[in-house]
Write a structure and sequence with these properties.
With 351 residues, the protein is of the alpha/beta class. Helices cover 29% and strands 15% of the residues. It has helices at 49-62, 73-76, 86-102, 146-160, 181-197, 228-231, 262-265, 267-275, 294-307, 337-341; strands spanning 21-25, 66-71, 105-110, 115-118, 135-138, 166-169, 204-206, 242-250, 280-287, 312-315. It has an 8-stranded parallel barrel. The protein has a two-stranded antiparallel sheet with strand order 4-5.
Amino acid sequence: MMRPVSTRTGRFGLYPTGVQMRGINVAGAEYGCDWGGFNNQTFFKWPTDASWATRLPYLAGKGFNCIRLPISWERLQHNLLGAFSPTYQANLLRVVKAASAYGFYTMVDLHNYNRYATNTHVVGTDTQTAAGAQIQQIFGDAVLTNAHVIDVWEKLAALFKNDNKVSFNLMNESHDFTVTSDNYVTNINAQIAAIRAVGANNLILVPNSRASDVDHWQQYSPNGGPFDSVAFVNITDSAKNYAFDMHAYWIPGSTPARYTSYANLLSEVTAWARTNKRRLFLSEIGVNEALADGATQVQGALAYMNDNADVWLGWTPWDLTPYRLTDATEQADGVQMPRYAATLTANTVRA
């Protein structure tokens, strides 16, 4: 059995029933580039000290107790196996330390889709090179190897190993690469072992072989090899402190027709996890704000996870259009906040 998340919770603590961790994505530090695995957002920003000092109490007051923080590998480490950018590292530490001090759990998410672009920055600076100069590499090609992923996580683990409120989201939405599922498990096991060797026992969130989605798990193998439901039983962790990173958006017309509701979309992987004594975390969740039954679908999915909290550790919705919970200031309710508020309890999870 997996061990539970630490209950040494600080100010806002964990929920006593249902899923323990209920949070939100804080996007921005991964965006504003021409090289990423997903280029729909053009802004790049960190929370300022002033905005963070207001936003953290707002989120806590709603009842959130964790944050998923996407970061850009290239902005953090301009060259593979190289040193971290002092400026980017300082911002990462500043934002995470403030969240931890306030009582939040933070998931540091390497938001790179199993990709890394070379030549993204002018040598010796944080200045981006001209658009088109970058060359995107894909995990498993002749350039981007598991040694590179291990290196960045060894360095990140060293930064955060003394903060048990920080967890490590190994890779956001790995997809369309040439490594088969069973070999990818071998690679991930090496990543986990390297993190543990640094002395970090933090919670690790493990990706799957296709965008962390839930619907392929027992249906097909995107990159060859066994289904993930077979291959990923072989994930190993000496600290026994990991969960599988899952994403699920309810998109009628795109979500496979065999699923009858958002909750039903989660049911297959839930059954797998219970049978195999594994844990899951839904780090991206969302329903288009224009969907007529969106509130019903979201609330059904959240209730389902609460009813299956032996498997589900928690959730963090995406917070950008068309899935926004907060408004443009990020410090007040947006149109979708009421969909989640029914499952949040402000100030009752105080330790």
